Amino acid sequence: MYVEFDTLPEESRIWIYQSNRKFSDEEIAEIETSLKQFLENWAAHGSGLEASYQLKYNRFIVIAINQVTQAATGCSIDASVQFIQSLESKYGVDLLDKMNVTFKQGEHITHKPLIEFKKLAKDKSVSANTVVFNNLVNTVGEYQEFWEVPASESWHSRFF
Fold it and tell me: Which top-rank group of organisms is this from (predicted)?
């Protein structure tokens, strides 16, 4: 069942999907409708999942579930991946490739393949102070505290 994101406890599990391009406002409206519909019916072993989402910067889809009420299972996670794949197909975007890095350059958000990010670090075009999006966070609490961080405070630090 869909709930408001800010009602989920900090230990709620999250998944972050980053798009290789910014979604238009029209696409965001459609994605929000689809997400609410999916989450309203998302279940694990027949029990509804208390779930929510956030769309950030017209580029990130964050899905969260309260695991205290009902944990996600293999089948429910598979269903969410299939849902994300349907968005990829519908909008012609890449949401599942984890070998990409998204980071801020001033107010602009840039998306690059990991190999290009490494080169930017080597060339000093990005630094340990560059704000990156650490999509490896696992809980709402981690997302709130450690998602947008300087590269020096995330797994990206190995490139500096």
Answer: Bacteria
